[in-house]
Write a structure and sequence with these properties.
Structural class: mainly alpha
Number of strands: 0
Distance between the termini: 150 Å
Number of domains: 1
Strand content: under 5%
Largest sheet: none
Shape: rod-shaped
Number of helices: 3
Order of helices and strands: HHH
């Protein structure tokens, strides 16, 4: 019985030793697992960061392309609207100039009135286009404004050129008739 008790004591001692070793092994395994888990998480975090940067760059490029396309489309549409709005006024101005038999002051007054109407119409069309464009993209106000000014100046130059040519033709016609 003493021998069995002695063996049980040794076994209990060995079990205590094994329990301590098992605890150490368990702690080492947990630390190793934690280290591996941290490494895996770091890799995944880095991969997610890289992917998010790539996605951000892709989205930025898509937004820039969309912005460029929308800007160009808005400029083209605005140009068409200005031309569509200006052409009837130009035609009316040319008809009015050809019918006028009066003096230069009536021609100047009519031309000023037409130019103001064209400017107002172009400003209204520009404001409407700009408001719609701001709703869709925002931030392109300066780009559209610059493009609109170029289109307006070109159309006004064409109108002034045509009006000047009509005024010159009118003056020649009046001179030929002996009215001036």
């Amino acid at each position: 019985m003493e021998e069995a008790i002695h063996r049980a004591g040794e076994t209990a001692s060995q079990l205590g030793h094994f329990a301590a070793q098992l605890g150490n092994t368990h702690e080492s395994a947990l630390q190793g697992f934690q280290t591996q888990l941290d490494d895996v998480l770091t890799l995944h975090r880095n991969e997610l960061h890289r992917r998010s940067e790539t996605l951000f760059d892709d989205l930025n490029a898509q937004i820039r392309r969309s912005f460029d396309e929308a800007s160009q489309e808005a400029v083209n549409k605005f140009d068409e609207q200005v031309r569509a709005l200006a052409e009837p006024h130009i035609n009316q101005t040319n008809e009015a100039i050809s019918r006028m038999a009066g003096g230069r002051s009536l021609l100047d007054a009519s031309l000023s009135l037409q130019q103001e109407r064209i400017r107002n119409t172009a400003d209204e069309a520009f404001a409407e286009s700009l408001a719609r464009f701001r709703e869709n993209l925002g931030g392109v106000e300066q780009l559209l404004h610059d493009a609109a000014q170029v289109v307006i100046e070109r159309n006004l130059s064409e109108l002034e050129s045509k009006a000047g040519m009509c005024a010159t033709a009118q003056a020649r016609d009046l001179q030929d008739r002996g009215m001036v």
